[in-house]
Design goal:
mainly alpha; Four Helix Bundle (Hemerythrin (Met), subunit A)
Length: 274
């Protein structure tokens, strides 16, 4: 009878029932992302940091692919957005905290697990804010993205997988949790690569630079991945400094703006113009 009832139902009813399902292609990448976070936690609890840390890097790649594939194939959905956020909490929130705690925060006792909880809380806030916040400039993220924040401790652990075993040597590990946590909930703008047009023609030098990057990752993965993670962390501050220098360079000495002089308007101070 239930089968006959479903066959007799109109196309609108059958359409609503079909939409209750999920799009498999992007969900598979999200599921693989979540598996990488789980695998990182398992290996970190075993003390196998050299094996655990790369799983976060793989999760970063999968996280970039699932959203792009969903947009390219027209399979975006509210379920996919929520599923991706929950997977990110595990892969880029819980996993790097457990990894860093087992690697170097444990000797700090309560201070160590408190720092880890701050990172986890900041990551959850960052994801929630991203889901509800509408940004007019798609070129930038407001606050450091949680995958990039998780890459900082993960690349550090992968670079030095031997662990920190006493209180004094473990103190720098606090920065691996607290600095990305503050940046995630800040209003500092970080460059987004979602707006890159991959179909546009580019210079041959870019292809050469990509080849150099691939060779570096293949031959020296530990320092290369650490440089990439920390370079992205510092990139926002570099862009802020460059933008401030440009604004100062375009201002006329004495605080008078060129537009104000041309129109006969009263001078505007440099501080107000910013």
């Amino acid at each position: 009878m239930p089968l006959l009832g479903s066959l007799r139902a109109g196309p609108e009813v059958r359409g609503r029932r079909l939409r209750r399902g999920v799009y498999l292609l992007p969900s598979m990448f999200t599921l693989a992302n979540m598996f990488c976070g789980y695998a990182c936690i398992v290996y970190a609890m075993r003390g196998e940091f050299e094996t655990a840390a790369p799983f976060i890097g793989i999760a970063v790649v999968l996280d970039m692919l699932d959203g792009r594939i969903a947009r390219m194939t027209g399979t975006t959905s509210a379920f996919g957005l929520e599923f991706d956020s929950l997977a990110d909490v595990i892969s880029f929130g819980v996993a790097p905290v457990v990894l860093t705690y087992a690697w170097g925060l444990a000797p700090l006792g309560r201070v160590g697990w408190a720092a880890g909880f701050i990172f986890l809380t900041a990551g959850a806030i960052r994801l929630a804010r991203f889901n509800i916040q509408a940004t007019s400039d798609k070129r930038y993220f407001v606050g450091m993205p949680i995958p990039a924040a998780a890459a900082v401790p993960a690349s550090t652990v992968y670079l030095y997988p031997f662990g920190l075993h006493d209180y004094t040597s473990a103190l720098p590990a606090l920065a691996l949790m607290l600095v990305p946590a503050v940046l995630m909930v800040s209003t500092i703008r970080f460059r987004s690569f979602k707006t890159i047009d991959w179909r546009a023609r580019r210079s041959y030098q870019i292809l050469l630079a990509l080849a150099v990057g691939l060779v570096s990752v293949a031959t020296h993965p530990r320092p290369t991945l650490a440089v990439i993670a920390y370079s992205y962390l510092c990139s926002a501050f570099v862009e802020m400094a460059v933008a401030r220098m440009r604004r100062r360079g375009t201002a006329v000495p004495g605080g008078v703006q060129p537009e104000a002089v041309a129109e006969g308007a009263p001078p505007i101070s440099e501080e107000r113009a910013e």
